[in-house]
Structure formats: C-alpha cells, structure tokens
Amino acid sequence: MVYYLAVGGNDSNPGTADAPVATLNKAVSLLTRGGDELVIRPGRYVCQPISGMPERDSWDEQVVIRAEKSGTVELVTPQSGNILAIRSCTVVRGLRFSGLYGITQYDYLNTPLHHVLIEQCWFGCTDSYRTARGVFLIGDTDYITIRDCQFDHCLSTPLVLGRPNDEDKWATNILIERCVFAENGRTGNNDGVCIEGVREGPTNGYIRDQNIILRDCVSWGHGDAGYDVKTVATFDRCIAYDNNWGFKVWGEGTRLLNCLAHNNWETGFALIAAKQEAWNCTSAANGKYAFRVYKQSHTNKLRNCIILGIIKSIRSDSYYSQMPDIDYCCWWVPNPTDIAYEPEHVYWNLPFANLQSKTNPHPSVPNIVFPQPGEHMVYADPQLVDVDTFTGYNAAAAVEPPPAEPPGEEGLTVTLSAEEVEALRALRPLIDRINQGG
Q: Where are the chain's structural domains?
C-alpha cells in the first residue's frame, strides 16, 4: 500500500494520493505491512519526535519512506529528540533533516536494528533548526547501508555507529559509500564519521572484524578526525582534508586502499594498531606528519604510496615502535638532514636509505638497529613534487621494477601490415588444431 504525506493534508484522511495525511507521526503509523511505502510531497514539515514505527523482522517486510522528488522534502523539529526513530527493514530515501537528531534507532537499549538503507539524504543546520547528529545508531546494528548522503555543518559528529566498549552494542556489516561529511563540529573532539568498538583480547585492542566498509567518501573540516573508526575496517577511495587528523584507524588488520589525506592540521594517516596496511595511498601537505605509527608498527605495511612528509613513531618505556614495512613507495621529506629525537618520540625525517646505520639512543630501551627499507623505494626531489596538486610522481609507475625480457632471440623486431595481421588471425584455428595434435 502506498501512503501520502502532504503539507495540505489532514490526519483524519486515509493517506491516499487524493487524501494525504498531514503529520509524519501519523504517516509512519500507517506502515503496518511489508511492502508499504510512504511518499512525502515537497515542503517543510515541522515534526514531533516519532514515538515508534511498527516492528518488522524480515527484509521481505521492508517499508520505504521517501520523498516524492529527492531533495524537496525538509523534516525539521524545534524540540530535543529525534525526527525519525526507525526500526529494522526500513528504507529512507531523498529527505532533508534539520533537528537535534535526524535518524535514530528505536529503543536502542533493547531492540536490535538490522537491514536498513539510508540514501540520498541530507543532514545539517538551517537558519532556524540546528542538527547535532545526523544518523545516530548506537545500539546493536547489523546490515546498515548509508549511501549518497551529505552531512553538512552539524554541531557535532554527524554519523555515529555503535557504543564504546559495550559488548552488546555492535555495529556489524556496515557499508558507507559516496557520502560527504563537511564541517561538522569544526572545534572540539568532533569527527566526520565515528564507529565505536570494544577492546578485547590480551592486547586490549580492537581486533574483531565486523565487516565495516567505507568507500568513495569525503570528509573535511572537523575538529578531530575525518574518520575515527575503532573496528577492523576497509577504506577504499576515501579522502580526508582540512581536519585535525585525516584517518584514525584503530582496528587490527584495517586496510586503506587508494585513499588520500591532505592538508590536515596534525596528521594524514594514524595507524594505531598492528597489521594495518595502506596500499596506493597518498599523504601530502599535512601539518606535521604524513603517517603516525604506534604499537607493533613493524607489522604495518605501506605499498605503492606517495608520502610527502614525516613518518612519526610513538614510543614509551613500555613498548617500542619501529618503522613500518615500507616498499614500492615514493617518499619525500622536507629538509632531510637527520633523525630528530625527543624523550618519548622518534621522528624519521631523512632519506630511508640512511636508516640502516642508525641505532636508538634512548636510555629506556635497548639499542635497536632500524630495519632496512625495501629495495624499490624512490626518494623524490622536492623540485619534482607539486605539493598543492600532489602531482609530479606516480608511486606505482615510479617504483615498479622493469618487466622481464621475453624469452627468445634478443633484438628481434617484426613489423606487420594490417593485411598480414588479419591473415594470421584467419590461420589461428588451424594452428590451434595442429598444436592439439589434430
């Protein structure tokens, strides 16, 4: 059944196309059967907090809440609380939210949320209505997709999933793709995206793989990190700039693929756990460090990366962080003169080839010879790198070893005309039969 909500409707109406209802609360209460759909006509709707949607257990029973035309419906609330508290098996599409909380989880303490799709939505502040958080799902969640959404000038972290160190409130099977997080909480401890996790195991780390994927997202203008993810995750083609930190990744085994961190105030990529990998990533023009590495950083891997800046290792008396496993990368650091030491930190700020002869002079740990880098490093001349456009070196092309010589006679070159090529192609079936003994 398709129901309609319109600015000129009336809640005593049945919600048909010719007789729409007037309030979101009334409209949502009509979605009682699997396959029901709510179509919201253009306009601004001042909403009371949703008291709750009918419960569903199967994706076959999903309901859809959508704008008749994407981007023309604005749901606002002047009150504290949520605009739309959703249950499982719900699709939300094409709406604009301005209020303290945009989309939340119904009864998050007691009711798991699963199979939810949020797409083509906007969350942010208007002149009269202020949004603290756009999507706030902090209970037990599973199979959540957030796609093609924009989080714009919210007052704090606009997308929060999971609860910190709550073993019953996991965020699992999450896909966030093609989303933009723009200037949400420019000051303070605010991120573009925050996914919480639970510390466990002998290392008291974030070790559980919960199938978290962030793909083709952009996050900029936040007081803390563009992405702050405390679970094992995969980032693919994500960008972070103009944040305090670009990427803060905490999950052991997290992978960063084809990502870019530039012009962040503190650090581009913070690899906080063991066995994390960055492939085909670029870190450029960040305020202090291209990469910061932490515990067991020798198990981290950097491959085919362009690194413009310093790699910093965090160290205390209780543990020692070495340089990560780095090879097939293009690395340029400003003023590559020597290693600079401080009481609790080691900065690598010199061409990597010289590290093999250096030892650690800090009195609290034994002298440890720095690992020798891989054999396929390229050290960029600053004159060849445009730090504004991050061009001048393609790491993959610059460091790939030359292809092996093909077998056969060296120096033999044959040039064929187009007619000769076609004649050879016509002989291909005969040659194949001969090779097969036919």
A: 266-403
